[in-house]
Amino acid sequence: MMSAKPTLGQTAEIPGPKKGFVISKPEIVSSMIKRAKKTIFVVGSESAKTKTLDGNLIDTVIRMSNLSKSHIIATGAILVEFKKRNIENVYSMSLMNVGDRLRDPDWNGLDGKGPYDLAIFCGLPYYMEWLVLSGLKNFAPHLITISLDNTYHPNAAWSIGFLPEKEWISAIDKIVSVLEAS
User: What whole-number distance in Å separates Cα of residue 100 and Cα of residue 107?
Assistant: First the structure.
């Protein structure tokens, strides 16, 4: 059992009456990924600096994406890190454009085969992720959002919350382990 805290990362930011759930068990995320019809990972520049058991968060996202046959959107200059690893199912798009497209129920995704029903965010600057998740919470009822960052994002439907670094790394690895086992 994780002991995550739902403490806001920005002082004086009020997310409204609807707040995201704190993920108490990493298996919840694995289960949601397995049940989703179409998943997308939205990865930001902080992921290259975030250490995990795979190396960094980019490597972990690649493993999760391969296991779930999901697309990856790399925001900003982080696309280069994916290209160094010869990853083909990665696309580049600005975060605000990603938020607008995910909000649109008529957008058929990067492959043209229908809208996403699960969006997983990680490695983005807190204030930018906050804004995009706020928009999706209020204007994309068809979409479930998860934040894998080591901060609580109240605008995501599900968020890991604040954890000690070793506990967060263990939680992320557990998500991947459960996906691999199924």
Answer: 10
Residue 1 has a pLDDT of 45
Mapped onto helix, strand or coil, the DSSP state of residue 94 is coil
Kindly list the distances between the CA atom of residue 134 and the CA atoms of 13, 41, 79, in Å, as whole numbers in the listed order.
11, 17, 25
Mean pLDDT in residue range 53-82: 95
Q: Which stretches does DSSP call E strand in the chain?
A: 21-22, 39-43, 51-52, 55-56, 71-74, 90-92, 118-122, 144-147, 158-159
pLDDT (tens digit per residue) in 29-49 = 999 999 999 999 999 999 999
147 within 8 A of 47, measured Cβ to Cβ: no
**Backbone dihedral region for residue 47 (phi beyond 0: left; psi -120 to 50: alpha; all else: beta):** alpha
Question: Six-digit token pair at 25?
Answer: 């068990």
The confidence score (pLDDT) of residue 17 equals 73
| Structural domains present in the chain | 21-181 (3.40.50.1220)
The CA-atom distances, in angstroms, between 147 and each of 42, 137, 154, 172 are 10, 13, 9, 11
**pTM for the full predicted model:** 0.92
Distance CA 111, CA 127 (A): 29
Name the CA dihedral angle for 94, 133, 102, 139, rounded to a multiple of 10 degrees.
-130
